[in-house]
Amino acid sequence: MSVLSVLPFLKPVQLRSPRSSPTGQRRHTLPASEFRCLSPEDAVSVFEIEREAFISVSGDCPLHLDEIRHFLNLCPELSLGWFEEGRLVAFIIGSLWDQDRLSQAALTLHKPQGSAVHIHVLAVHRTVRQQGKGSILMWRYLQCLRCLPFARRALLMCEHFLVPFYQKCGFEALGPCEVTVGDLAFVEMQHPVQGHAFMRRNSGC
């Protein structure tokens, strides 16, 4: 059974019914809003959003285009994109990690036997920021992780000014992160996703 077949949260969700034509015949329209795993074909759209979101703040991107393609080829089930009218507006990309804390190697490696999901990046398109989309997407992503039998916790690293945002999403700070990028220092945070077997039984996962 494929991973996607047991993830109800990743099925496209249509939030608005297609409009009918004046003749009463239904015409094909794109869903108003849908969530799905990303594919390598989405890499350029992902990078465009990420580049605009991060370069102006930190001068660099968490993932470069080749790294985005790398993770979307290896573990697309650990990504989630939010599309509106067929256009990507927000995304999360993750990979698996097999140690208690993140290290420099976690920036580029996917450890298939790991039980920690390393969230590399969450970004929202500039035209739809300040609408709560980041927190909604993170909530939905964590629900997806609860349907993955191998996932026990989510890990991420962020700059200090983002700590309150992730705390509101349910993450707790573990302290300074070992990873550095240039002059930037990070706080490492985690969110447990284990202990939800009852949710899997009752949610159709």
From TrEMBL:
Gene symbol? Aanat
Identify the PROSITE patterns for this entry: GNAT
Gene Ontology MF: a single term: aralkylamine N-acetyltransferase activity
**Family the UniProt entry places it in:** Belongs to the acetyltransferase family. AANAT subfamily.
What Pfam families does the record point to?
Answer: Acetyltransf_1
Gene3D superfamilies per the record? 3.40.630.30
Reaction(s) catalyzed by this protein? Answer: a 2-arylethylamine + acetyl-CoA = an N-acetyl-2-arylethylamine + CoA + H(+)
What InterPro entries does the record tag this protein with? Answer: Acyl_CoA_acyltransferase (IPR016181), GNAT_dom (IPR000182), SNAT-like (IPR051635)
Recorded protein name is Serotonin N-acetyltransferase
Q: Which residues form the N-acetyltransferase domain?
A: 33-194
Domain of life where this protein originates? Eukaryota
* EC identifiers of the protein: 2.3.1.87
Which SUPFAM superfamilies does the record associate with it?
Acyl-CoA N-acyltransferases (Nat) (SSF55729)
